Amino acid sequence: MAFDIDMIKKVYANMAERVDKAREVVGKPLTLSEKILYSHLWDGNPTVAFKRGKDYVDFAPDRVALQDATAQMALLQFMQAGKAKVAVPTTTHCDHLIQAKQGAVPDLLRANEVSHEVFDFLESVSNKYGLGFWRPGAGIIHQVVLENYAFPGGMMIGTDSHTVNAGGLGMVAIGVGGADAVDVMAGMAWELRFPKLIGVKLTGELNGWTASKDVILKVAEILTVKGGTGAIVEYFGPGAKNLSCTGKGTICNMGAEIGATTSTFGYDDSMERFLRATEREEVADEANKIREYLTGDEEVYENPEQYFDQVIEIDLTALRPLLNGPFTPDLATPVGELGEKARANDWPLKVEWGLIGSCTNSSYEDLTRAASIAQQAIDKKLKPKSDFGINPGSEQIRFTAQRDGLLQTFEKIGATIFTNACGPCIGQWDRSDMLGDQKNTIVHSFNRNFSKRADGNPNTHAFVGSPEMVAAIAISGRLDFDPMNDTLINEDGEEVMLDIPRGIELPPLGFEVDDNGYLAPKEDGSSVEVIVAPDSERLQLLEPFEPIKSSELQGVKLLIKVEGKCTTDHISMAGPWLRYRGHLDNIANNTLIGAVNFFNGKTNFVKNQLTGEYAGVPDAQRAYKAAGVKTIVVGDHNYGEGSSREHAAMQPRHLGVAAVLVKSFARIHETNLKKQGMLGLTFANEKDYDLIQEDDTFNFVDIYEFAPDKQITLELVHADGSKDTIKLNHTYNQAQIEWFKEGSALNVIKKENAR
Ligand code: F3S
Questions:
Q1: For the whole model, what pTM was predicted?
Q2: For 550-754, CATH number?
Q3: What is the pLDDT of residues 191-238, one digit of tens each?
Q4: How many Cβ atoms from other residues are within 10 Å of residue 184's Cβ?
Q5: Per its UniProt entry, what is the enzyme's top EC class, as one word (predicted)?
Q6: Average pLDDT value for residue range 443-467
Q7: Atom of ligand 1 nearest to the CA of 360
């Protein structure tokens, strides 16, 4: 499990010099975010000042974290890189594939049966290539990272959007797609557009029922779900110092809900306390030596308007508890005002479930505050009106909470303790109390509350609040309950009030765990066999992609001309298809089935030019592949927006699509196409989109001269024999053209390794 102290010392050894140099280059005091970014440049010492929101910059992250759903394809790809070991410390966490149903023990047993082949694969591949492996039940990726690996001033990437949680311990931690993780694990640079910076100044101190969660619920209200896009949110001010480290983690965690690249806090005493409590004395000692480099310059925080692109100020003393929802995490309502709003909108007032935990809110402090409310229910003879579910964030938290009687308190009020895993937060919840699409309300301390997120039911109205507020609301069973002003009737018919929650930041007896669920990799994994059953329907070892020859780019057929929005979900749907994330051929059966065909307005219904008949997109494409005919996908604006999922590029590539030609790309998808050795091109003249007809054949006439900054000429041969010639733009640099010529970026890495 050991955190890599040598790596941390190396980061800190460079930090002072690089930050001082950056200050010189930028010509002004620096925010913490800038200090971390400039000290992690791929090229070492900073030489130029980057334009925020404009320049693309190569970085060298210190760590990588993978979760089981996304790790499968990432590691299958990494195996193609020809490396003996990952280039930076990396861990794999099994947390997404465990369904919550009866409780921790039976649920984990079932998950180990249902998904054993995925877990076996991840364990063996981690062992072989030097990745730390956290077994199913060991905990949720971000909680485990916070407790074991996060360190002030570090930079990490993770294949999960809530990787940002590690900002609570002063990191710049960013959620990415599997392809980016593969690059870093394989020893390549990681590219990011230099983010804009939003400063949040916190003053005052939390009090009463208000919790760290309410800070981010408030920020979400102010910035909305899109307000943080392309920006790092940096928290500072006297209020920040008054928050616990795990409370800071909660705030950073939900930065994902406002679209922020990440969020972070400067190193302070709360972080030092957390590092020492989690047995990382050495990290705290090292951090203390360069303390001033692990927070923004004083001048920045004194005059934030001059240094951030946007500044928000929140007075913690005046902040009131909020419940955000339903269906979006930015719809904030102060507790106590929700009744009126719910009645006006016909949201069910009766609360069916209160769910506490997830990567967002399962710290010791969270559990003690929520348990203090549960204890009051026992003492004041209140019988909870809603069901309770708790999913601890890690085995360390669970074991410690059990030792200290917290879980027993929850159990006394009828709570089910689920596995230390994502469970209901990611729809892994076999909920037996609601049949069909029944309209109902739940409250939870998770981060996301989009339609269907928790239980697949589009009519479940989910509200997000702090763990202690969730506990209070669930005890009352009503959404309009305000524990600060309302009374409840107990079993003796008496009116009682809940007192304010009491929490303990860190366990007074220290954290404790028997088996934390960690497996260290072998020092030399060369003899380890990676376990993939040849007949598996969930996993498939990858074959390197063959380069697309210039000769194959003559006589190319149209697979689909997509009309309107085409996100990565349209290209590679989620939902039930998640099951096949590790099996390229099986998941390819969903390729582009959500995209609308320009010629008939239908989805998954395209003309197979070889037969003249209509078929589903994957079926038509497989027919072209069988006939050795390459195809092209034509698209509209912002093609491939949405997630950074590499499947959206790998699937068409696997099925034999050679090129994607669009009016404009979402940048990450464009890069993913390049990495998979495909052509990602744009119309030089947008109107040429209108020239594309259903029976067209395409000739890339000068592809033999593919070069940076040189347009490509495309000849369209229509069914009646007439022709149009159009110009295409591309953004390939020389290295990316090599990816195309070699068949993929991984093929290039492999070739370099072999030298
Ligand atoms: Fe898991 Fe939900 Fe966090 S899915 S990683 S607990 S956001």
A1: 0.93
A2: 3.20.19.10
A3: 999 999 999 999 999 999 999 999 999 999 999 988 998 999 999 999
A4: 23
A5: lyase
A6: 94
A7: 3
3-class secondary structure, 582:
strand
Stated length of the chain? 755
Asked whether the predicted pLDDT for residue 643 surpasses 80, the reply is: no
- The predicted model gives 654-673 an average pLDDT of 94
- What is the pLDDT, as a whole number, of residue 233? 98
Residue 575, pLDDT > 80, answer no
Rounded to whole angstroms, how far apart are CA atoms 675 and 657? 14
110 is catalytic: no
Q: Which of 70, 140, 455 to mutate to test the pocket of ligand 1 (most atoms within 8 A of CB)?
A: 140
Give me 728's structure tokens: 């295409």
Distance 220 CA to ligand 1 centre (A): 18
Residue 582, both tokens: 């590790």
Instruction: Specify the CATH architecture of the domain 5-315.
Output: 2-Layer Sandwich (3.30)
Q: What is the homologous superfamily of the domain 323-432+439-496 according to CATH? A: Aconitase, domain 3 (3.30.499.10)
CA of 141, closest atom in ligand 1: 5
Q: Which one of 40, 448, 453, 669 is the catalytic residue? A: 448
User: Can you give the pLDDT at residue 1?
Assistant: 54
Torsion over CA: 501, 327, 336, 412 (sign): negative
Residue 95: active-site member: yes
Nearest CA to ligand 1 atom 1: 422
Cα separation of 195 and 33, whole Å? 9
ipTM, two decimals: 0.99
Catalytic residue among 62, 68, 107, 160: 160
State percent of the chain over pLDDT 70.
100
Residues of the chain with CATH 3.20.19.10: 550-754
Residue 558: phi and psi, rounded to 5, are -80, 125
Query: How far apart are the CA of 358 and the centre of ligand 1, in A?
Result: 6
Per-residue pLDDT averaged across 501-523, rounded?
97
